[in-house]
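DM between two lab members

TW: hey, do you still have the Glutamate or tyrosine decarboxylase entry open?
JB: yeah, one sec
JB: this one, 490 aa:
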Amino acid sequence: MQRPEPLPDLDWTPDRAAEFGRTTVDLWTEYLRRLPAMPVTHPHTPAQTRAAVLDGRDVPDKPLGDDELLDHLRTVVFEHGAQTGHGGFMAFITGAGTVPGAPAALLAAGINQNLGGWPLGPAATEIENHVLAWFAARLGLPEQSSGAFVTGGATANLMALAVARDALAGWDVRREGVAAGPPLAIYGSDDVHETVDRAADLLGLGTAAVRRIATDDRFRLRPDAVAAAIERDLADGVRPLAVVGTAGTTELGAIDPLAELADVAQQYGCWFHVDAAYGGPAAMVDELRPAFAGIERADSLTCDPHKWLNMPISASLVLFRDPARHVAAFTLQPDYTKLDAEVESDMMLRYQWTPQFTRPFDALPVWVSLLAQGWDASARRIRHDVELAAWLHHLVGEHDELEALADPDLSIVCFRYVPPGTHDAAYLDDLNERILYAVQRAGRVYPSNAVVAGRYAIRACLISYRTEAEHVEALVDDVVAHGRRLHAEG
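TW: and the structure you got?
JB:
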């Protein structure tokens, strides 16, 4: 047998890598320069986008030339992308991505550390541990808290409720399964995020295990109604498992009364989980913290830095008060992962703490962004976003043809267009839905929708550091202009 010769085809030289990297950075820089003047959305249909982006292209046997590849990337970025970094983007809860986080994400991909185990990412593991501890401290959890970076709030909620299930079910549910004991129940508001239902499904509890409970006139979960639901379940032989408080609901940004919910959870021996995927960063701002009183009592807590801190996707985290319960829900020990016991004693082996074995270095863009920007700038921006929401709410209240549907607690504003005269509810719902789509197609701003107390609403979520008063004023102008036109057309 002949000795194989080297095959370096995939091992680009540093100069070749640098040239390709410079081309990509130039494209990103052009994107940043052009972004303010670009429409928030493009007019192309899915079929048109598919045709333009793919254009019959398949994975080639031979590499594309750099110019051809760059042309392809320009089409993806400028012609058929959603400009979520634009100041006029106010839909859903999607951040713009920090500027320093972008090259940090490139570096994380370049060094390709695997945070499943400390030996595969030593510095990366220590940075993740440190960043998690910083978030836990800012949110008021005890020093010994544990956590993990995960792909998003859905995974964070799933992990939190998995730990709750394993810790409080009352039997070895990891080994015997949920069928070995009585049914379990989870309690949240009408507006608790749908990922709680998904978690109940994936954990074998069934979506019917989620008790969606009425809210008060501020759209907050009522602790007395939670207690009443728990009492009914106890009488029926159902075991109460977890109370989920939301610190910033998706539709309205409502903050549940967390301290009172913590009291109910403690009274009945339930796990207390706080979904702060959206509102968590606001709870870290001193002036806004009082609205989140009780968050520090959570057994687990979800927070998405890729939302209101605008970190590059994905940067979500889940935190746990009790590390022993956390690790007990996920620990396992394959033979091939054994290490020198003396060395391992001081290691964090993260495959023991999450459902993932292979894990990316998601903490690096967050860490670099915090180092490059400082916390004060983020805190000022969050306060500014709350002020922008108050300004938009004020503009709505001052306009005869606009109606606010809720007072904003954070940075989400829901309102609708109401033309002069008397109109039935169905007409107003249909009209505002058509207004929303017209505003989106126009491309100056891009709000989304909500349903508030049964009424269709135009919803603006203000979390981008590029959004300013001019953008919310443009939203008001566009809603009124399109509302008048569509109402006149009948």
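TW: got it. The longest strand covers residues 239-246. The mean pLDDT is 96.
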